[in-house]
Amino acid sequence: MTRLALLSGLGHALLVAASLLVYVLATRIGHQYRHPSAALAWVLGMVAFPYVTLPLFLFFGTRKYARPPRHRFASEPLSAAVPTGAPPWATRLLAGMELAPAERNGPITFQEDGVASLQALLDLIDSAEHTLELGTFLYGNDAVGRTITAALVRCVQRGVTTRLLLDAVGSFQTPRRQLHQWLRAGVRVRRFMPLLRNPLRGRTNLRNHRKVAVADGVRLWSGGRNLAVEYFTGDTGQSAWIDLSFVVHGPLAAQAQAQFRADWHTAGGRPLRFNRVPLLPDAGAPAQGALVQWVPSGPDHADDTVHALLMSGAYQAQQRIRAVTPYFVPDDALLDAWCLACRRGVQVSVLLPARSNHRLADWARERALRQLVAAGVQVWLAPGMLHAKAVVMDEELALCGSLNLDGRSLFLNYESMAAFYGATEVQWLSDWFDRQMAQAVPYHARRPSWLRDIFEGVVRAVAFQL
Prior knowledge:
With 466 residues, the protein is an alpha/beta fold. The protein has 16 helices and 18 strands. The longest helix is centred in the N-terminal third of the chain and has 28 residues, at 2-29.
């Protein structure tokens, strides 16, 4: 019996050692850096429960697979990376992370109304002459989904090469008959990282949350809307969610197209070797058009690009920072940066839905909101479901796209934002924020019970960091 116990203990110790070795190899050699609390949770789990934690880590543990930047811009003068009209701190930072530079585009149209956004998307699909590429996280089996499907079929019938990229988890409930309908019509469809195809590669937890539609590489529709009825027209008896999208004509579409094609290759099992959108030829933009930059973020980029931009902006802002997001579970570094910005006189405002469609997210955000309010940050709660994602820093930079301000979007998902540097675009988003804030109510922090405080901490750590 004693010998059996010793062998059992030795076997457990060997498994623990092997688990920790796997973790070190994956995180350090593979540059899979994590928040300290997330790293501690994995390590403690492997020590206490290696039989469960090691398989979970192999299934969900991968965070990055891009190589570190090769500093292609290091030999260029800094002025070459700073377009006229853009804040130097932002464009130099993004250039250092090997992102394609900001370029002039044609007029930009924002859509806050869901019906107008759906019509803009349909118009873009109907305008395609050569290629149409559409990517989304969620594709609804509803009236909006059927309307867009009909537009895609018309696209194929005109002889346009039509590609549809769906996230495997987001489209999990999409009926097989719908997939067969697309394929029979000639639409080329790929599902991004199916669960049963990727578990041993550790990428099950990496989801494609980007939302883009690109026609002929020159016209782009993007933003925060998934392709389902709640994002555009509202379900029976319910209003549509508050959201944002935009249409751009110009080089930004070519950058988004290159990103889509990289994702398309990844979904086909052939990830590309470059970790940034390549520089592309001019797509015919006017010399004095709107200055916009494509800012992708995710496992295909060695840096956490949007998080780095938000952190830098927190220390560069002089007047105000405004942020709107449906789910607010930031990491401690960003949370502290915004608190410090507020304490040095910057007006920081955060707009959230009073109650989102994810109850766990509402629980997990409470600690961060109490910390913000204690530092003097203004937190506002909108009455309806708010799904828009945007950040405005001073009057010189605005971000709009698919990224939520939570750990999953900031560090795990494939995301994309557009950085707008023009006064017109920044002002439009700032005015939109004012209109939404006028209907919101201020958040009042309440001291939680000890049980609720523990539950909030567990939800924050497990659901939004690992």
